Amino acid sequence: MELADPALVARARSGDADAFRTLVDRHSRNLFRLAYRMTGNESDAEDVVQESFLRAYRQLGKFDERAGFGTWVYRIAVNCALDLVRSRKRRAEIQPDPESGEDPVARATAAGPGPDRLALSTELRERVAEAMNELSAAERSAFVLRHFEGMRIEEVGRVLGCQPGAAKHSVFRAVQKLRRALEPVVSTAR
């Protein structure tokens, strides 16, 4: 029988490394998906996940049992990703991953589109990445959590540590900015 997160947290607090490993296994895929969408880079996303769980382990004693472990570790991952994105912007290193030479999202798409569709999807992917980089940290986080992770506004607010109204406003601003940025590409595709 699989233990629930609260039981695993209690065991991990008492020094059970296997219990924490189970929490990592249970939540790492979702954290990676979140981190990848926020950083746009597979290697950075892996770093964010690793740093998130390291911080969670160090702060396990401060974890409030009233919150879900998943929500708590999500918040840590959002903070780690934001820290990375901010530092990357300061260093002006926002660019595709040069090591792999290939976008992991592109690998996941179905094979067989024609050259015109490939050109459009490449341009659209680049525009989306540029537009996402232009969003503020709050807008980007709220947008990713709401539209990529499918969280309700209340959950987004909890993860970001703000009121639902503020979370909704951040999502709204992000959507408006993305629409403006992507309008030229969308109108030529019609």
Notes on the structure:
The chain is mainly α. The protein has 2 domains: 108 residues, Orthogonal Bundle (Rna Polymerase Sigma Factor, Chain: A), CATH 1.10.1740; 78 residues, Winged helix-like DNA-binding domain superfamily/Winged helix DNA-binding domain (Arc Repressor Mutant, subunit A). The chain is built from 9 helices and no strands. Helix 8 crosses helix 9.
Output mean pLDDT.
82
How many runs of DSSP E, i.e. beta strands?
Answer: 0
**Which consecutive residue ranges, at least 5 long each, have pLDDT under 50?**
107-111
CA-based gyration radius: 18 Å
Number of discrete domains: 2
Distance between the termini: 53 Å
Under CATH, the homologous superfamily of the largest domain reads: RNA polymerase sigma factor, region 2, helix turn helix motif
Largest sheet, strands/sense/barrel: none
The CATH top-level class label of the largest domain: Mainly Alpha
- CATH hierarchy: architecture of the largest domain: Orthogonal Bundle
Percentage of residues in strands: under 5%
SSE-based structural type:
mainly alpha
- The run of helices and strands is HHHHHHHHH
Please give the count of helices. Answer: 9
CATH structural fold name of the largest domain: Rna Polymerase Sigma Factor, Chain: A
Q: Determine the fraction of residues in helical runs and give it as a percent range.
A: over 70%
Shape: elongated
